[in-house]
Fold this protein.
Amino acid sequence: MRKILVTGALGQIGSELIVRLRDIYGSDNIIASNRRIKDGHEELIKSGPFEIVNINDIIQMAEVIDRYKVNTIINLAAILSAVGEKDPMACWDINMNGLYNVLELGRKKNLQIFNPSSIAAFGPSTPPDKTPQDTIQRPTTMYGVTKVAGELLCDYYYQKFGVDTRGVRFPGLISYETLPGGGTTDYAVHIYYDALKKGKYTSFIAKGTFMDMMYMPDAIDSIINLMEADPSRLIHRNAFNISSMSFDPEELAASIRKHIPDFQLDYDVDPVRQKIADSWPNSLDDRAAREEWGWNPKYNLDLMTEDMLEKLKIKLDIKD
Ligand code: SER
């Protein structure tokens, strides 16, 4: 029986993953944790075990793991790319020292571990189109540096100590439940809110900037399917390219206009986030994930747009 501790559970991924995991494995077997309580998550906090956990505090982590007899950690506590450029030291501290604690606990207590990587693990010298699974990784952001180092550290713990570490390289994630916390791909979430509320959006990412993106239900499936995959099939581990769509702001706007014909898009490009976006691939080759554990996303751009607008309308109480 799985007993899963999810760190960063009140973040963009965690808040939806917890609900799915509790459906599959039972509420009592999923321990949601976050370094602080955040408004708007009262229902999730009440829906099963919840603990305040700081991944930089290994003693506190160990106590929670022992108390609940945890055998799996899904480590979602992290600082994203744009915030990471504002405070690189904090980004290193949480993303690396926190991961080190998670892996050490994995080694000592024989835990299975999921640690997400990102398209940010690539850099300007990486082949940008259909980026191969195994290729040059020289990122130019602190977030990217922590993601590459994290991939290597997770592989090291697997090879040296036999810790069952697994991960995927997430693209920009789009969801309606919880906003992302300071990434470069966040424009692709904000655009839907503004399309419904104002009928227009000013993008901080320039026209023609293509990045890989994914709708949250597919991202959640990737975590669950990879963690359940037969280990004998895994040639790669940390971390798999996964991909479902790649678009620029213009293509996203065109998809929104199929539902809101007058939607207007203009630009006020943020040089910091644009530079980050320009250093990342346009689209990833995800054949290894498809072959080794059956990765098969369900949503393309138009299916995602339809669902996002429908769900956000309800959330924002917008009438036609
Ligand atoms: N969505 C993330 C970011 O923009 C990429 O992993 O930072």
Observations:
- The first strand starts at residue 4 and ends at 7.
